[in-house]
Amino acid sequence: MKSLLAFVALPLFALAAENSPQDFSGSIERFDPAFDKLVAPDAKIEKLAGGFTWSEGPVWFDGGIVFSDVPKNTAYRWKEGMVKAEVFLQPSGMTATPTDAREQGSNGLARDAKGQLILCQHGDRRVARMTAPGKFETIADKFEGKRFSSPNDLAIRKNGDIYFTDPPYGLSKLNDSPLKEFPFNGVYRVTPDGKVTLLTKDLTFPNGIAFSPDEKLLYVAISDPKCTRVAAFDVKADGTLGTERTFFDAEAVKGPGLKGGCDGLKVDKDGNVWTTGPGGVLVLSREGKLLGRLNTGQPTANCNWGDDGSTLYITANMFLVRVKTLTKGAGW
After folding, report:
1. pTM for the complete prediction?
2. Are strands 280-284 and 126-132 parallel, antiparallel or unpaired?
3. Domain 4-324 has CATH 1.20.1110.10
4. What is the DSSP code (8-state) at residue 235?
């Protein structure tokens, strides 16, 4: 019988690549009339590129969508008109001497106020800034002298603070890795002057992370296969977090053929939450009501806004896909 950690390790890129065909087929489900204001009735999920091992962390950067293939230690870029995505960074996450890292590449990607690319680098176990193509500087790699496990995803506040999650997915043996230096999986903040604060250590597998448009709420996706959900925290005046509460319990929408759990998430300009979950991307109201689902047919890692802010790009297993929406991402 496999342990919980073994179960967590397998359904992502290993089993996803094994069980998924290269031909993509998506569909859109509508559960509430409010969804029609977000996604047009004739909208389609469009495949842009494929053949990746486990695509992750999309961000609109340099006129195209840049995303990670975490196991391949490579970031790709796709622009309109391309037949296939091009290599953008290689290596993308393990730039030092290789270790026994389970997933070496970059994962979550973001753009700061200056337009610079900020990366969660599994292999180097840090949050870093790209200073030039293939050149990086460390923003944060330690807390109280101990190394992070494998920073996974990040959200940047208007004041420059970076909030990020640190589950063990980049480490061999995950929580049992001899390289893991913390007995918990934390959510952290690093300020522009480099000060790192532990915000919470009570989440099992914190993953995707995003702010509400007014930055008064912080959402964190929990990718625990036994209790996959989206948690919410009030953000206090000093940037620390209030008590955690469940914003959406995705266990209730699991079903036959609905692959994946809560992994990455983003928020639109009106505060609706677009989170990956069973079946693809779940679209939730500000109150946590399920409005619709973008069915990718794949375990789906993450999503982000691009073009003029109204196109949602989705990294779904071996695919990069997109949906044109009637809204825009927060901050566009």
Report:
1. 0.93
2. unpaired
3. no
4. B
